[in-house]
Amino acid sequence: MPLVPPYIESLRPYVPGRSSEEVCRQYGLAGARKMASNENPLGPSPLAVEAIRRHVSGLHLYPNGGLDLRRTLAETFDLKPENVIAGSGSEGIMSGIIRTFLCDDDEVLTTDAAFIGFQVLARSRGVAYRTVAYRDWHYDLPALAAQITEHTKIIYLANPNNPTGTIFTKHEFDAFYQHVPERVLIILDEAYFEYAKDNPRYPDSMHYRYDNVITLRTFSKIYGLAGVRIGYGFAHQELIANLLKVKLPFEPSTLAQAAGIGALADKEFLHRSLELNARGLRQLTDGFKSMGLEVVPSDANFVMLPFPGPAEAGAFTESLLREGIIVRPLGAFGLQHCVRVSTGTDDDNAKCLEASRRAVSLVTGG
Ligand SMILES: Cc1ncc(COP(=O)(O)O)c(C=O)c1O
Q1: Which of 69, 111, 221, 223 to mutate to test the pocket of ligand 1 (most atoms within 8 A of CB)?
Q2: What is the DSSP letter of 207?
């Protein structure tokens, strides 16, 4: 056996969206607008920042494994702390799920071009990773159900989905769930839950109390805390008890936990962020459509633009980068002809659309 297992050797690492500093350096720009990583353009929740400040003096002490945040979340969502886990972002918890539940012969099942973070984590375990194609940029849940085998252990569903921004409905999920054996764990990744929750067709997974479903949510998106690394999960207490055995004992950090508790109380920031995003989605969707681009309808804080081919997607991205607008080409996800654009401030969105108009005329030669 080689030192590095072949499935690690051949693994392509997670490549995050590019930073403003890096793009400014490369293109000789004074500033750039980051619309590549679905972050909150308003910055972090002010109550989270206050909470971080209050906890700085206790940094010489080890954290308590997220217990305070678990209690606060349990109270907020009317659960027991035994049903809640907190971790270093929802990806921290995903990593724990993979380490806790997967055996060598198990299979993971999801859609093509699933959230890249999950793809990398699942593939790093060296188990079979199977996918089905999108149907009109939505999860094809009937096709997924048809692919379940006796080896299937985990089914990963992101709702809303990244990178498409689409949702599956309550009705679609209910029909799908009938086909999933109890021994299969469904990960319902609701990183963009807050943006979709008011859509009456959206299935809030907190209304499901299935023993084989784990819901993951994060403070990285609407609460503006991507840099702090704090996320949480809800599930049956037996699943949580096993995840807690595997979790790094001092994850999440003291400051991450404090930020999460502070953010949960920040209703004003949540409201302001939702309003800005709703405006931004309309502005970007209408603007891109007016240029003749295809825009996938989104329930999240970004839109996906499918281009005729990789060359057009690449030229569009590059042209925006030269003007200091950072968007996300989706080659790493497996969608070489698509680009994802996160909503920004009103001004970011306007500047992005102006630059896109010039980019489109370059790309189409018009
Ligand atoms: C679907 C989905 N899940 C999870 C995450 C990661 O969240 P976290 O920052 O909590 O690890 C993202 C971030 O882009 C995402 O799009």
Answers
A1: 221
A2: G
Q: Which helix (H) or strand (E) holds 344?
A: none
> Bridge partners of 341?
303
CB 290 within 8 A of CB 312: no
**Structure tokens, 78:** 């009317």
For 144-180, how does the pLDDT look when each residue is reduced to its tens digit (9 = 90+)?
Answer: 999 999 999 999 999 999 999 999 999 999 999 999 9
SS3 for 46? helix
Cβ of 162 below 6 Å from ligand 1: yes
Q: Is 223 in the pocket of ligand 1 (CB under 6 A)?
A: no
**Residue 200 in 3-state DSSP?**
coil
- Asked if residues 232 and 93 have their Cβ atoms less than 8 Å apart, the reply is yes
At residue 226's C-alpha, the angle toward residues 99 and 49, to 5°, is: 125
Model confidence over 306-325: pLDDT tens digits?
A: 999 999 999 999 999 999 99
Q: What is the pLDDT of residues 214-261, one digit of tens each?
A: 999 999 999 999 999 999 999 999 999 999 999 999 999 999 999 999
Residue that is written with structure tokens 């306007």 in the block: 350
Cβ-in-10-Å burial (0-12, 13-18, 19+) of 314 comes to: middle
Nearest to 277 by CA among 92, 38, 81, 85: 38
Nearest to 96 by CA among 291, 233, 256, 264: 233
Q: Is the CB of 260 under 6 A from ligand 1?
A: no
Q: Which residues contact 94 (CB under 8 A, 6 or more apart)?
A: 117, 118, 121, 187, 189, 216
Atom number of ligand 1 nearest to Cα 218: 10
Query: From ligand 1's centre to the CA of 88, what distance in Å?
Result: 11
Pocket test for ligand 1, best of 14, 110, 194, 218 (most atoms within 8 A of CB): 218
Q: What angle do CA 159, 163, 165 make, to 5 degrees?
A: 50
What is the spatial distance between Cα 102 and Cα 122, in angstroms, rounded to a whole number? 9
pTM over 0.85: yes
